[in-house]
Amino acid sequence: MVAALPALAIAACNGDPAPEDGATGGKASGGKASGGQGSGGKGSGGASSGGRATGGDGGSDDSEPVTIEFRAKLGDDAFSCGKKYKKQGSSEVEVTPQDLRLYVSELRLLTPSGDEVPVKFDERSPWQAPTVALLDFEDASGGCKNGNKSMNTSITGRVPAGSYTGVIFSTSVPKALNHADPATLPDPLQAGGMSWGWLFGYKFIRAELIATKAPAEDEKPGRGVFHLGSTGCDNRPMGEGGAGGESSPQHGAPPAVDCSYQNRNEIRLDSFDPDNDAIVLDVSALMSDVDMSVDAQCHSMQMQMPCETLFPKIGVDSMTGAPKESQTTFRVEAQ
């Protein structure tokens, strides 16, 4: 099976490694955008005075509600479908958004002493299940035709009462859910356009920008497309082409072993006060080295050139798919 993996990857190098939505259901609907897209200015470094977790519903135990606010920006400008952004990417072209959605899991807050405290997610359909949440910054307007009008820009849950000065999270779907039968999974794992099917699992991040002008009259506008997810997933029997003669894996079944490239990260922001700060996803920083004058697409295949620059910016090693300590896409700013 190991020998068959490169052929599987090469076959998918010009697009997503599996059908667009696989066996998942329709688009997430309902719910209003929670949290604003305001400006403000606080870097990810420096000290934080800490804050008590607030927001959400009450509870009968010794925990308290917490709301983690997220914002999407291109540099200092709020992300907005239909808006134009100048001088983006390595070729400094004008672009407009097409999509921006991502899954978040393994969310923890840091205490002043450095302890990691897991956030117990609220079950909040269609955006949150007990172990994963979907952030959705598009509203189906402008060029964002693959999404829906509803948005979600925050994660709600509960933590033990106390002060917190940092945050850790992963932009991924937990492994136990990523390759479970997608037809049986609850929201937010039924969001349209966020799955590669049962074999490969989910698109952890879907970020897409398109140039507002084509380089020539007979050419299409360039794009910057980043679909992060696990790759190198296979379920063929051992042996060349499979012992039973199968030449292709079965996309409607889970992988037989762990995917070769997990492509998972761990984002750590040491100066974060949940009462007063928001986490910013800077799409301009993510796409800064992508040439969007051409059709530049990364579907998490290591041989795709845009992936070499995109993976490190999101905290993933571009060769192994393992987490990296450094990243440049997420930062902290005051609410």
Task: Report what the structure shows.
The protein is mainly beta. Strand 2 and strand 3 (77-78) form a beta hairpin. It is built from 4 helices and 17 strands. Strands 4, 5, 6, 8, 11, 12, 13, 14 and 16 form a 9-stranded mixed β-sheet that branches. The chain has one domain. 7% of the residues lie in helices and 27% in strands. The longest helix is centred in the last third of the chain and has 9 residues, at 305-313.
Please describe the structure with a list of short key phrases separated by commas or semicolons.
335 residues; disordered N terminus; 9-stranded mixed sheet; mainly beta
Task: Describe the secondary-structure layout.
Layout: H1 5-11, E1 51-52, E2 63-74, E3 77-78, E4 85-88, E5 93-110, E6 116-118, E7 120-121, E8 133-136, E9 154-160, E10 163-164, E11 166-170, H2 175-178, E12 205-211, E13 223-228, E14 267-269, E15 277-282, H3 283-286, E16 295-298, H4 305-313, E17 330-334
Parallel strand pairs: 2-15, 13-16
Antiparallel strand pairs: 1-10, 2-3, 2-9, 4-5, 5-6, 5-8, 5-11, 5-12, 7-9, 11-14, 12-13, 15-17
